[in-house]
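new request in #modeling-help
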Amino acid sequence: MSMNTFGHLFRVTTWGESHGPALGATVDGVPPGIEINEEMLQHWLDLRKPGQNKYTTQRREPDAVRILSGVFDGKTTGTSVQLMIENTDQRSKDYSEIAQKFRPGHADITYYQKYGLRDYRGGGRSSARETAARVAAGGIARAALDQLLPGLKITGYMVQMGHRKADPTAYDLSEVANNPFWCPDAATANAWADDLDALRKSGNSVGAVIEVTAQGAPAGLGAPIYGKLDTDLAAAMMSINAVKAVEIGEGMAAACLTGTENADEITMGPDGPIYSSNHAGGILGGISTGQDIVVRFAVKPTSSILKSRKTITLDGENTEIITKGRHDPCVGIRAVPVGEAMMACVLLDHYLLHRGQVGGAGGTLAT
Amino acid sequence: MSMNTFGHLFRVTTWGESHGPALGATVDGVPPGIEINEEMLQHWLDLRKPGQNKYTTQRREPDAVRILSGVFDGKTTGTSVQLMIENTDQRSKDYSEIAQKFRPGHADITYYQKYGLRDYRGGGRSSARETAARVAAGGIARAALDQLLPGLKITGYMVQMGHRKADPTAYDLSEVANNPFWCPDAATANAWADDLDALRKSGNSVGAVIEVTAQGAPAGLGAPIYGKLDTDLAAAMMSINAVKAVEIGEGMAAACLTGTENADEITMGPDGPIYSSNHAGGILGGISTGQDIVVRFAVKPTSSILKSRKTITLDGENTEIITKGRHDPCVGIRAVPVGEAMMACVLLDHYLLHRGQVGGAGGTLAT
Amino acid sequence: MSMNTFGHLFRVTTWGESHGPALGATVDGVPPGIEINEEMLQHWLDLRKPGQNKYTTQRREPDAVRILSGVFDGKTTGTSVQLMIENTDQRSKDYSEIAQKFRPGHADITYYQKYGLRDYRGGGRSSARETAARVAAGGIARAALDQLLPGLKITGYMVQMGHRKADPTAYDLSEVANNPFWCPDAATANAWADDLDALRKSGNSVGAVIEVTAQGAPAGLGAPIYGKLDTDLAAAMMSINAVKAVEIGEGMAAACLTGTENADEITMGPDGPIYSSNHAGGILGGISTGQDIVVRFAVKPTSSILKSRKTITLDGENTEIITKGRHDPCVGIRAVPVGEAMMACVLLDHYLLHRGQVGGAGGTLAT
Amino acid sequence: MSMNTFGHLFRVTTWGESHGPALGATVDGVPPGIEINEEMLQHWLDLRKPGQNKYTTQRREPDAVRILSGVFDGKTTGTSVQLMIENTDQRSKDYSEIAQKFRPGHADITYYQKYGLRDYRGGGRSSARETAARVAAGGIARAALDQLLPGLKITGYMVQMGHRKADPTAYDLSEVANNPFWCPDAATANAWADDLDALRKSGNSVGAVIEVTAQGAPAGLGAPIYGKLDTDLAAAMMSINAVKAVEIGEGMAAACLTGTENADEITMGPDGPIYSSNHAGGILGGISTGQDIVVRFAVKPTSSILKSRKTITLDGENTEIITKGRHDPCVGIRAVPVGEAMMACVLLDHYLLHRGQVGGAGGTLAT
């Protein structure tokens, strides 16, 4: 995990800028013999694609992914897979002002401070467009997981937008695909629609919380001490643009619990251990328990807003900026498929790591 | 970052179990010429040491660190530094019951499910005792940072225990060392003392939130995309025992903000950019801004409690367990020096990475 | 250094097959502000390009490299650089027979044994075409080195073909570009021309030895113990297709020397230490001395020959094969620019590593 | 593979100086359930131990290895194993002169030039004593291989000392343990004894060539492109002190062969492919063929000799030095067990990597 690479054995290296000729991912360590084609990956990219409804940016990218290597006769060969998405809707002229001014909340100023220069077109490398490459790579991870861990199911959904939270007692995962917010609670989705209409008209934006769960993961994934499953999930989610927090299971609320409340009691079921609850989010000591793996992350509001904000120029002069252009009022919406992709990458990586170190062995309680 | 190793250039590999002969850290990539001695490292270990007051476990370990390599004539040589802490207060007999039963909330069951066997003495490798090695390694990082970034100051403190939060308007960092909770708010510290007395008597435990800040860090630390400073901080903190969530700046609360509220406006000051606020926690696009770096993490309540909990045996039989022994009612207290150590390791690592890739160059706004 | 990635801080990940749509390299850790353009990289690729004379394969690839990311306004931005070379002269039909038969000396059988399937078109991932990506990446390394270590000069040349060696007393590096063999000794080059004409007509091939030197490298590059400069050079060169041995300085001949013969004596010169000889090849204890760095590697004869060889089919039946097609009679010739590229990558990587760990410090004798 | 760490999944990090309190290895990624005890590791260390006969240094170290972590009830637990060897025979006073003078052929000057300071006691970190830690770690790798690949047999032996080579037609591996040179040819061993007696009396030293073979390794170990089995073997052997060259199979002699001579023809045998010869040294395209894996490396003559050599002081003054003390006239002898250990580490690492990526799958020809 260094610079532009994520993962241990299943390793994803992404490249590309928002407004360069293309972006993509180099995916290494892919198990051989996995059925992959561009349509399968395109499916996931289309879910992330902007411009699908009025709540996401109107920038229209076909985001068509091409497989340039590592797949032969429809199957992975075990060698590095190159995924490329060409940038077709670049409109560089939209971004002329930001060449001279730093947009508050963006990485413009830090890239400049670090490197002494930056690609100012649409955020360059720091653009959320990089996440398209993750979603494509995640598609490969999902295909491998489908074959290696057939019962596994990864689902992401939005559980909070601004101050309004979805109602956990009303979660219905079959509802997630029915609304533009990936919300598991139809009533909240409707309320969010109204909230977001108002925000968009006012030129403002808002934050969100995404939850991603993995059902059907086996016990035993993860490794002490710095390759813990939750450690890698935290890194995976925190590396997504605009994410400011990551929670596992109870998350921050674990601080409020007592030991008796928090301990998930164990009894023996017909197929292995059963837990009275899942405060742990499916992970103990960095290793999966076989329960649902539950991760949440908070996405800050889109920093590009149609409100004037104070900033400085390249020359250090005080000025103001309004970030015109086509921006999502709640960038968290489009983070849902990205979070799913990162979950898939982490789980596949840890499955391979486990298989490498431990092989088919393991405790007799393993489910 | 794989298995028992943390970091890119400044790399810490820890080893050792709770009740084996010793534990320690192998520290690689240390800059040469840094003044280090055992007393300097012992200072940090003593802060973490249990048994110092009634709120931490009465297990009495001297936790004396020895430097076995990499230091000559009082200075680091640039080669790998080995730090060893011998375990002297082992009392293995205290742990005989847990050889047969899995303690709920502990990693007993997952280690067993993963590896098919486990060192059951005091949690073995999953014990929080491993964090002593991190604190020792963090002492080296701090010494290097003192020399390389003399203005940098890292401070950790507890801001929440159970439902009771310290009052941010009353934070006084000079107060942190004056109470057994590392609390920056004396009034809250007193209230926590009462809370914890009651909990301890009842044999229960409680969670906590720790905040760690770094003041005086330069702009430009961190690297896109998967080696972001916040990504590595999230991994660092999540890898600490019992941590369930990590926040940067606003953290989960970023979800509630609008774009206008969240954007830290920029103006030009005499020595570089000045920000109107620090919702970002000092990091934009994964790179430090020069503001305070602010990280928080939640620690779950100690899972070892004097309350009977349902569990199963190695043979899959239902049973109950009371985890006797000497346990902290709020393990979060002792996590404070650990969080500081991890912050130090991450900042030094990113300083070296930056110096490696960029050298002395950088934007003219860099402070 | 794992799977398809080479390097520590300056990291090159290559991808692509011989007869897929494209191949390339993802280059991470590039210092910012380095002037790069496609012409600069094309220069090095053209040197490696096949079909330039009768001694290299007549496959005609333009091998045009495109920069897809990481460069803006003609300078590197510090983010990952993607280099892509499209395959235009694929002629897949040439390779139909080898789908069913394993070519002796090739990786056909081992890829199949490892992965259970393989891309049989022209060797797929195991083709020497992969080295085009290395040469392109090496072009970036060279540009960075030109800026960071302006006195450094990397030169590769062929010193042996079959049993005929170039005469070291006649080496003239200015001669290297004057003959199709990169030979520093014009007389030997003429003899090789005759040797190779005969071999080519007979449908056979022959091995070679390449030497690569770096003049003007500073003292202090390299790191104990497993990141030694010679360790990384050995890995770099051995990873090139068909290489079977790597030597540093005296190489295998060091076995024949006595201690008095081997020790390069040291005296003080006007600008630093001067050595009486360079048996060490410029590296002591894994760290550069400031002398010329000297590496040699042996390349086996091209395995694709127009002679019938015994082999087996996918089904395990005995058969014979003649590898028709356009093949180099001495693949070692085209390995020269590849060896130079690997030297450049290793030196830049170690320069950045050194700068990261040690900064501008170092011993007073450093030159 | 960075700095003091070697390996991908099975990772060995060594630490310690020649004359510090101790040295050792932190071994990560060990499969769980492997039977290990100190006696098993001591067996291998005793083979390497100095002072066993008149041909190796008379420094007498018991080299007693302790296991400090990662093993419980006689089996590995899957967590990091710490191996420690205390230095008991330090005699630092022997080394007072070299604090001020650089020994030609040693790393004294390069460590100083790199780091600006050095541990001058007995070479510090650059001492061949570091290899004791490798041998101990190799003992763990061997134990794991015994369990995972029961038919595998690793044997190292010396095949050349000075100009005198063992006779390949007379190799008898059962002879290796019968002479102090690990020579597979008894007649040559006798001649070497005379050679070395003369050299030792004259205060000189000599180089050597070691060959290490692995019989019974399965096909399919290794990975393209930069994690090739031969790439990692080259790095492993080149990282050993005083090694100047590494050969696989034909090695440098491959340059002299024609394609027809070099191609190992394939026919189908009862249990898988059979090869007419093994010029490849058991590796094609970086992946094992199932034939014997054959590696050779050249060790330069001991640089510490009782002959006066020109050198400079720390202050840059010209002087001379005679390296008194207890030194091996042919350090290559003691490199034999080290080469075996590195072979074991590389093979285990690649076995785990293969199992991780590919699992139990593989081509039908796999043996």
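bot summary: The two ends of chain D are 30 Å apart (CA to CA).
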